[in-house]
Design goal:
single chain; 236 residues; mainly alpha
Length: 236
Amino acid sequence: MKFLSYDSPFGQFLLKLCYSCCLNLLWFICCIPIFTIGASTTALYYASMKIVKDEDYGLTRMFFRSFRENFRQSTILWLILLAVGLLLAGDGYVVYRLRAFSTGPAAVMWTLVLALLIAAAIAYTIVLLFVFPLVASVSNTNWAMLKNSFFIGTHYLFCTILVFAVHFAMFFAVVRVFTPLVVFGEGLCALLSSYLMSGVLRACSYDPNAEAIKEDETEEDAEQEDDLSTQNGEDV
């Protein structure tokens, strides 16, 4: 049946679901040592973005290629973000308890501190959503990755909200609706997020200098071909 054929929209949909299951399994296995979560997430987004671009060179090959190439940077960024996340969580819990047992001016002060921590947590979440897809897409320093992740996330706020909604919906569905959906888990989230992020990351990774160099090289090649044509005409 044409409806179930490989090239049909439904067939491609089923294929992408299978991809998400495989990627989710690879991601989960490589996250087991905990400190490799960053490298595993980067590899997950690298493979997902290749699928979105229809550049499928084998899931396992793409995944582990990115895992090896980006291991050092992704691990450093993950450990930094893990430390910051634990610090924010600990501070938030302490400040919340202090606010709950305070009255008068002290309660107002702790409320303001709690508001600052919530703002910091939002900024942290934005960076967490974008930093590993960014590592999978471009090369830059660790500080630039963190900074650019925040700027991209705040500039393309609608995309950020959608990516967050995808992850939250998956978490809610697994915890409260149908637990077996965990087989799709982060693999499906990364694939859907890659569709949302692909245009944003492509625009942010665009290098006008590289494009100019490419155009110059094309013009030089054209001039060389014209010169050769002229010389051949004179020889005749």
